[in-house]
Write a structure and sequence with these properties.
Order of helices and strands: HHHHHHHHHHHHHH
Shape: globular
Number of domains: 2
Distance between the termini: 27 Å
Radius of gyration: 22 Å
Number of helices: 14
Number of strands: 0
Largest sheet: none
């Protein structure tokens, strides 16, 4: 008889100490050089999710508590508590994932719940920071982005030896960014939170299955699918962008960008499924994934691929659902 998820399946001092060191490292390292490795805070939910499931709620909670306390002591000694508090704001995402596994929620539903948890945690953090410094973090971010673009253009004009026509094209591109970034910044922030949620969810599921397939009832990432009615949100957003006046067109544009991000995740699952089906060597897979992420067009193409999957069913998942007893 399988051990219930909530009891943990791999208890032991070795797993506890390994998890403690790993979580402290993920929490503390970004505080040492936040400008260079601050991105590591995005992966704080991953060890929390992993060890809560592997060790169980009780032992996993003890591990997280000890790691937070020891990290707080370390941050106080090196004077980097604000960055550590931001890392703490990522923790609810991992906790939400583990509860979803215990309660056997579907992975896409889990991602949505985790996204809401992370949005709430970020709002609390940035609102508190704004109150302490008497500033509006969102407005400050807009100002910094605009100044960065302006200063970057000035440096580029002074250092680059380009033809006047090329320089004018660069100026036009920068001006376009300065006009559009304030309009689409909400979508950029939401897409960033969605990406962090997706990364931790996919990696967490993969690690748990590598440890023990019985730790999670979720299927592999290549089988994850978005709810079909979501396509109507894409259609309505597209109609708003092209047919409605401001501010509805701007709202539609933001929704469309978020939808592109979400359907990119599904498009990537389709590509991963096809590469797996065709037994493509790992080195070539890595090169394909690298090209997808480097090229902006690759992301857009995969988004359309994920959207088209609603009708095309590239992975034949609907057929499998209709014929559950058919041989694969």
């Amino acid at each position: 008889m399988a051990v219930p998820y909530s009891q943990g399946r791999h208890k032991g001092n070795e797993a506890h100490y390994t998890g403690l060191i790993l979580l402290i490292a993920v929490l503390l390292f970004p505080t040492l050089l936040p400008e260079k490795i601050g991105w590591l805070t995005s992966f704080v939910p991953l060890p929390i999710f992993y060890y809560l499931v592997v060790l169980g709620k009780k032992d996993g909670t003890i591990l997280i508590r000890n790691a937070i306390l020891l990290s707080a002591v370390g941050a106080l000694l090196i004077g980097s508590m604000p960055v550590l508090i931001f890392s703490f704001a990522m923790a609810p995402l991992g906790i939400a994932f583990s509860h979803a596994v215990f309660n056997k929620k579907e992975p896409v539903a889990t991602g949505f719940i985790g996204f809401l948890f992370l949005v709430f945690a970020w709002l609390l953090f940035w609102s508190g920071l704004g109150m302490i410094h008497q500033t509006n973090p969102y407005t400050t971010l807009l100002v910094e982005l605009d100044e960065g673009l302006s200063n970057g253009l000035i440096l580029y004009e002074e250092s680059a030896d380009l033809a006047p026509e090329t320089m004018e094209s660069v100026r036009s591109a920068v001006e376009l960014l300065r006009n559009y970034i304030p309009k689409v910044l909400p979508a950029i922030l939401v897409s960033a939170i969605l990406t962090i949620t997706w990364l931790n969810l996919v990696l967490g599921n993969w690690l748990l299955k590598k440890k023990d397939k019985d730790l999670t009832a979720w299927p592999d990432y290549i089988e994850w699918t978005l709810p079909e009615p979501l396509v109507w949100l894409v259609i309505m957003a597209g109609v708003s962008v092209f047919l409605l006046p401001e501010p509805m067109s701007t709202i539609g544009l933001n929704i469309l960008i978020v939808c592109i991000t979400v359907y990119f995740f599904q498009g990537l699952a389709i590509v991963a499924s096809l590469l797996n089906k065709w037994s493509v060597p790992m080195l070539i897979r890595v090169l394909i994934y690298a090209l997808i992420f480097i090229q902006t067009y690759g992301i857009i193409i995969l988004s359309f691929l994920g959207l088209a999957d609603v009708w095309a069913d590239f992975r034949k998942l609907k057929q499998a659902d209709e014929n559950p007893n058919a041989s694969v």
